[in-house]
Amino acid sequence: MRTLTRASLSIGIILSLAGCGILLHPGIAADLLFGTGAPPKNPNEYHIGAHEWVGDSISVRVFRTAEPSANTALPKITGECLSCNLAPTPEELAFNSEDQAIIYFPEARQLISARMELKGSGIDTTFIQFQRPPAEAQAYFHLSRPLMGRVLVDQLAPLYLDTTQDSVVTFASKADELNIYGERSAFYLVHHPNFRKPLYLLKSNAIRLY
């Protein structure tokens, strides 16, 4: 049994149309033959751009998918902290002329990772705000002890007060990133934004990023 390829099927369509006196634009014909065409981007669809900590708030940029570099009038968009236990109802975001808005949920700065949700006409998505880089975190949290690197947690992991492993105070989730003070035998000494003292994370539960 003969199988039609995309090219042979496309050629058949082009010849059939030509037989009816209909000539296709060369660009359209090329799209049929080689599949180079792409559907136009939805002008009313929006995506999240750069986001970062600014003080105790999160700055986020939203852009129109079809024109990522252009500033545009955004629809009404609300923000919600999905990771926060004490967060209020979603709040409407106020965007400036650069399409940036400030999100403030008091609890977010105390979390290892804060998952934010943005909803509105043309956008319904989430993003994760990780902790600040080591030097920035050291300055913001006024830490007397320097932070010297960062690790990626690769599974749900307990965080201990010491090396005895009988003093679990909280957990880090998979894909969390933690700044570290240093290493000690089988542990990383990590900084948790809600604790003043270093906590202990087993090295087997994380990957050193830098």
What can you tell me about this protein's structure?
- By secondary structure, this protein is mostly beta strands.
- It folds into 3 domains: 1-38, no CATH class; 46-129, Sandwich (Immunoglobulin-like); 141-208, SH3 Domains (SH3 type barrels).
- 14% of the residues lie in helices and 36% in strands.
- It contains 3 helices and 14 strands.
- Strands 13-12-11-8-14 form a 5-stranded antiparallel beta sheet, with no helix packed on it. Strands 4-3-6-7 form a 4-stranded antiparallel beta sheet, with no helix packed on it.
- Helix 1 (6-19) runs antiparallel to helix 2.
- The mean pLDDT is 86.
Task: Please name the defining characteristics of this protein.
single chain, 210 residues, mainly beta, Immunoglobulin-like, SH3 type barrels, five-stranded antiparallel β-sheet, four-stranded antiparallel β-sheet, 3 helices, elongated
CATH architecture of the largest domain: Sandwich
Percent helix range: 10-25%
Q: What string gives the helices and strands in order?
A: HHEEEEEEEHEEEEEEE
Q: Identify the strand order in the major beta sheet.
A: 13-12-11-8-14
Specify the structural class.
Answer: mainly beta
Which consecutive residue ranges, at least 5 long each, have pLDDT under 50? Answer: none
Number of helices: 3
Major β-sheet annotation: 5 strands, antiparallel
Percent strand: 35-45%
CATH topology of the largest domain: Immunoglobulin-like
Mean pLDDT: 86
For the termini, the CA-CA separation is 58 Å
Q: How many independent structural domains? A: 3
The total strand number stands at 14
From the alpha carbons, calculate the radius of gyration and give it in angstroms.
26 Å
